[in-house]
């Protein structure tokens, strides 16, 4: 409230003291001119209004400063979070560049491969979750990359998680991240793979290896898009497309109680089966040529052409390790061919079936005489079929089996083999 001092004394000290105490004016008695009094009152009120307005402006300015400071503090936290996230994403991408498959595209023109490519083209644009099944080495990751690159999230990252390589106690941290001090060894905040894949694609390789106790948290993220880092109360939101892969029969795992049924159906929106190499051997020549040329270029060597006998030998083999095994075989062949004739170290006999290949892989399994005779019969038939029943000459069955033609002829007679496969 404004104060006007009216005094009978005009002492300068009193005037100064009154004004310092907050008086707006100092009048001497008697105040005979009403206009002077009214002017003093008007001036006091105007001064009071100015002071209140200044106070309001100051309070408003202080509030603005507090709000802007809070916004800058939050922006700085977000910037630091983004910096940490980019550092981890760059670290992840550097690892991926070193581990990425050298295959630049999917090779094959067989009926099964054309069907696979049609399925990829069908599901890729939809953004639906995909469950890829197939034996080890068939190229499930390559299929996942093809789906991502042909989908609506192609400009965002494809983040891979190899579930088979994560220690059980670190699954939650790997998926969702953690904050510093949340457990022994957590010396700094860490962004999880889900957050790295936000608005992109998360590839869960060997998804059947995820512990049952974590599957519920994974289901929550898929259903609600929410999670918390380990040691954190704050709920975070993400939006990701899931592509999962497995070499297991996940429905069998569900029936055995090792995999959640609701999670299985959430992942298996669109199933894609990748064929084993033995199911499209007509694509093997193109694949072998590709891998051989690739390896020779890496070695700085002249590629040796694959001859018909080489193709026949490769096609007579079962390839239990599928395309990955073929790639490794051609790399070894490229190295060996620099010193002379190309050869293949196939590990199990040419023409072995998948079942025989698995049996051969078990070093401690003993076969009965009947099993050995059955294997010999089937192996010989496969070699004869690959050579179009030619016994002698380049690419003939005897050469494929590494047997003298006379020995092979005796075996055919002893086994009672005929061209109709009997």
Descriptive report:
By secondary structure, this protein is an alpha/beta fold. It has three domains: about 1-100; about 100-275, P-loop containing nucleotide triphosphate hydrolases (Rossmann fold, 3-Layer(aba) Sandwich); about 280-415, Helicase, Ruva Protein, domain 3 (Orthogonal Bundle), CATH 1.10.8. It has helices spanning about 10-20, 35-100, 110-125, 140-150, 170-175, 195, 210-225, 250-255, 260-265, 285-300, 310-315, 320-335, 355-360, 370-385, 395-400, 405-415, and strands spanning about 5, 25-30, 130-135, 160, 175-180, 190, 200-205, 225, 235, 240-245, 270-275. α10 crosses α12 (about 320-335). The longest helix is centred in the N-terminal third of the chain and has 66 residues, at about 35-100. The protein starts with a strand and ends in a 7-residue tail after the last helix. Residues about 95-105 and about 350-365 have low confidence and may be disordered.
In short:
The protein is built from 16 helices and eleven strands. By secondary structure, it is α/β, with parallel strands linked by helices.
In whole angstroms, how far apart are the ends?
Answer: 117 Å
Give the full name of the CATH homologous superfamily of the largest domain. P-loop containing nucleotide triphosphate hydrolases
Mind summarizing the main beta sheet?
5 strands, parallel
Level of helix content? 40-55%
Descriptive tags:
11 strands; 16 helices; alpha/beta; Helicase, Ruva Protein, domain 3; 422 residues; rod-shaped; Rossmann fold; five-stranded parallel sheet; two-stranded parallel sheet
């Amino acid at each position: 409230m404004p104060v006007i001092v009216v005094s009978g004394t005009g002492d300068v000290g009193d005037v100064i003291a009154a004004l310092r105490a907050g008086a707006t004016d100092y009048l001497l008695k008697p105040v005979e001119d009403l206009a002077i009094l009214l002017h003093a009152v008007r001036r006091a009120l105007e001064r009071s209004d100015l002071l209140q307005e200044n106070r309001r402006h100051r309070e408003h300015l202080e509030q603005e400063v507090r709000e802007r400071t809070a916004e800058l503090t939050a922006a700085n936290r977000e910037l630091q979070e983004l910096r940490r996230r980019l550092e981890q994403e760059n670290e992840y991408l550097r690892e991926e560049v070193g581990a990425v498959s050298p295959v630049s595209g999917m090779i094959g023109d067989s009926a099964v491969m054309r069907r696979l490519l049609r399925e990829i083209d069908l599901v890729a644009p939809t953004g639906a979750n995909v469950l890829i099944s197939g034996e080890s080495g068939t190229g499930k990751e390559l299929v996942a990359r093809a789906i991502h690159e042909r989908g609506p999230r192609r400009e965002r990252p494809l983040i891979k998680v190899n579930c088979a390589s994560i220690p059980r106690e670190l699954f939650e941290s790997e998926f969702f991240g953690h904050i510093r001090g949340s457990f022994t060894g957590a010396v700094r905040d860490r962004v999880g793979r889900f957050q790295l894949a936000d608005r992109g694609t998360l590839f869960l390789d060997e998804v059947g290896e995820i512990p049952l106790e974590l599957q519920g948290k994974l289901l929550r993220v898929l259903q609600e898009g929410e999670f918390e880092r380990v040691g954190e109360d704050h709920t975070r939101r993400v939006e990701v497309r899931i592509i999962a892969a497995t070499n297991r029969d996940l429905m069998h795992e569900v029936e055995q109680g090792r995999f959640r049924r609701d999670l299985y159906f959430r992942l298996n929106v669109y199933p894609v089966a990748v064929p084993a190499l033995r199911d499209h051997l007509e694509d093997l020549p193109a694949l072998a040529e590709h891998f051989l040329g690739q390896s020779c270029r890496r070695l700085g060597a002249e590629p040796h052409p694959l001859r018909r006998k080489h193709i026949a030998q490769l096609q007579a083999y079962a390839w239990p390790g599928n395309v990955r095994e073929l790639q490794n075989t051609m790399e070894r062949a490229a190295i060996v061919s620099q010193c002379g004739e190309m050869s293949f170290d196939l590990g199990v006999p040419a023409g072995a079936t998948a079942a025989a290949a698995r049996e051969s892989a078990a070093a401690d399994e003993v076969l009965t005489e009947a099993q050995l005779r059955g294997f010999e019969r089937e192996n010989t038939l496969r070699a004869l079929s690959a050579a179009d029943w030619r016994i002698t000459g380049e690419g003939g069955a005897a050469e494929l089996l590494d047997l003298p033609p006379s020995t092979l002829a005796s075996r055919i007679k002893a086994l009672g083999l005929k061209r109709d496969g009997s």
